[in-house]
């Protein structure tokens, strides 16, 4: 599960493997969700989004899954590459605001 | 071409000073935002403006005053800086205020208070 502390939850994967990053969101009424990637010294970069009337959406090497029953969102990255190393945030859109999750650090090792 | 640009990238100043951060977007978006990211990477919205009008103010101390001269610019002025203001401040923009619009972020301004 997610935890707030001095260190972000970290997922370490080997290059070429698939990565799955999970996120629990807060509000049942949230109707739009986004995954962002943040590299060191940069701002959050949009990866993929999904609306609440869908449960799966695919992009290039990425797939987002939405389970509204348990308020859970996941990001799957296929064939993870060193360039995928970053902090990943989920965000839910609620009352016209984006509410960000605590973030997960993805480390890719050779 | 930079879509959302902030200046300065780094800002080091003493407690009690007043400082401003500027943001410009060239995406033609109607809505702009300021976020604060703390040392734990937690990202929280501060303000949102749509076509120069304030639409979200997340109980930020009134030492923080956003100003939007036009819909492509949203500046943030901070009075009487405190140690707790040290953070990275991100500007973002989106097309419209609707909840189904992705926000595009600048690369942040790292503010350090001595």
Summarize it:
The complex is a heterodimer of chains A (110) and B (114). With 110 residues, chain A is mainly β. Helices cover 0% and strands 54% of the residues of chain A.
Provide a descriptive summary of the structure in words.
The complex is a heterodimer of chains A (110) and B (114). Helices cover 0% and strands 54% of the residues of chain A. Chain A contains no helices and 10 strands. In chain A, strands 1, 3, 4, 8, 9 and 10 form a 6-stranded mixed β-sheet that branches. Chain B starts with a strand and ends with a strand. Chain B has strands at 4-7, 10-13, 19-25, 31-37, 43-50, 53-57, 64-70, 73-78, 87-94, 104-105, 109-113. Chain B has 114 residues and is mainly beta. In chain B, 0% of the residues lie in helices and 55% in strands. At the A-B interface, β3, β4, β8 and β9 of A face β5 and β10 of B.
Secondary structure layout:
The complex is a heterodimer of chains A (110) and B (114).
Chain A: E1 10-14, E2 19-24, E3 32-38, E4 45-51, E5 56-58, E6 62-67, E7 72-77, E8 86-94, E9 97-100, E10 104-109
Parallel strand pairs in A: 1-10
Antiparallel strand pairs in A: 2-7, 3-4, 3-8, 5-6, 6-7, 8-9, 8-10
Chain B: E1 4-7, E2 10-13, E3 19-25, E4 31-37, E5 43-50, E6 53-57, E7 64-70, E8 73-78, E9 87-94, E10 104-105, E11 109-113
Parallel strand pairs in B: 2-11
Antiparallel strand pairs in B: 1-3, 3-8, 4-5, 4-9, 5-6, 7-8, 9-10, 9-11
Q: Which labels suit this protein?
A:
heterodimer, A: 110 residues, mainly beta, 6-stranded mixed beta sheet, 4-stranded antiparallel beta sheet, 10 strands, 0% helix, 54% strand, disordered N terminus, B: 114 residues, 7-stranded mixed beta sheet
Termini gap of chain A: 26 Å
Q: Radius of gyration of chain A from the CA trace?
A: 13 Å
Q: Briefly note the structural class of the backbone of chain B.
A: mainly beta
Q: List unreliable stretches of 5+ residues of chain B.
A: none
Strand content of chain A: over 45%
């Amino acid at each position: 599960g997610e935890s707030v502390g001095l260190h972000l939850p970290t997922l370490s994967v080997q290059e070429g493997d698939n990565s799955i990053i999970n996120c629990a969101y807060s509000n049942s009424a949230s109707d739009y969700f986004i995954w962002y990637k943040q590299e060191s010294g940069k701002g959050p970069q949009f990866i993929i989004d999904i609306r609440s009337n869908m449960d799966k959406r695919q992009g290039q090497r990425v797939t987002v899954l939405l389970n509204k029953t348990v308020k859970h969102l996941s990001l799957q990255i296929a064939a993870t590459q060193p360039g995928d190393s970053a902090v990943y945030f989920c965000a839910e859109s609620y009352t016209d605001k984006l509410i960000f999750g605590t973030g997960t650090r993805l480390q890719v090792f050779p | 071409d930079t879509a959302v640009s902030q200046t300065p990238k780094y800002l080091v100043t003493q407690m009690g000073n007043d400082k401003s951060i500027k943001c410009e977007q060239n995406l033609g978006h109607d809505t702009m935002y300021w976020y604060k990211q703390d040392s734990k990477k937690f990202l929280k919205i501060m303000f949102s403006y749509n076509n120069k009008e304030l639409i979200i103010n997340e109980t930020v101390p009134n030492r923080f005053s956003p100003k939007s001269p036009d819909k492509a610019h949203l500046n943030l002025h901070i009075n009487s800086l405190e140690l707790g203001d040290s953070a990275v401040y991100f500007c973002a923009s989106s097309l419209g205020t609707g909840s189904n619009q992705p926000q595009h972020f600048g690369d942040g301004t790292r503010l350090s208070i001595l």
